[in-house]
Design a protein that fits this description.
Blueprint: E1 2-6, H1 8-13, E2 17-20, H2 30-37, E3 41-43, H3 46-60, H4 65-72, E4 81-85
Parallel strand pairs: 2-4
Antiparallel strand pairs: 1-2, 1-3
Helix pairs in contact: 3-4
Length: 86
């Protein structure tokens, strides 16, 4: 199953990551998956991950509205699987 998320550098850059995760890994919960991937946040839903990214960007970098606007425009098809596979 594909998961979406980000780490602290992604919040600064306005990037999302994606990874393929085996169904059995969900037995340990999303926090464990995030930890294994080195991410701060992970979700199985793209929109939830994008919205959380935008929210954190807004909290941390109000002086970069162009990055926040770009992050709001990210589509699931724009996010390559970069986080590897668990």
């Amino acid at each position: 199953m594909k998961v979406y998320g980000f780490d602290s550098l992604d919040v600064q850059r306005g990037d999302l990551q994606a990874a393929e995760v085996e169904a059995a890994d969900f037995d340990f919960g999303l926090e464990a998956i995030a930890r294994d991937l080195g991410w701060e946040f992970v979700s199985t839903r793209f929109k939830e991950a994008r919205d959380e990214l935008v929210e954190r960007m807004t909290e941390e970098q109000e002086s970069y509205p162009e990055l926040i606007r770009a992050a709001k425009q990210i589509r699931a098809s724009d996010v390559p699987i970069t986080g590897g596979s668990l």
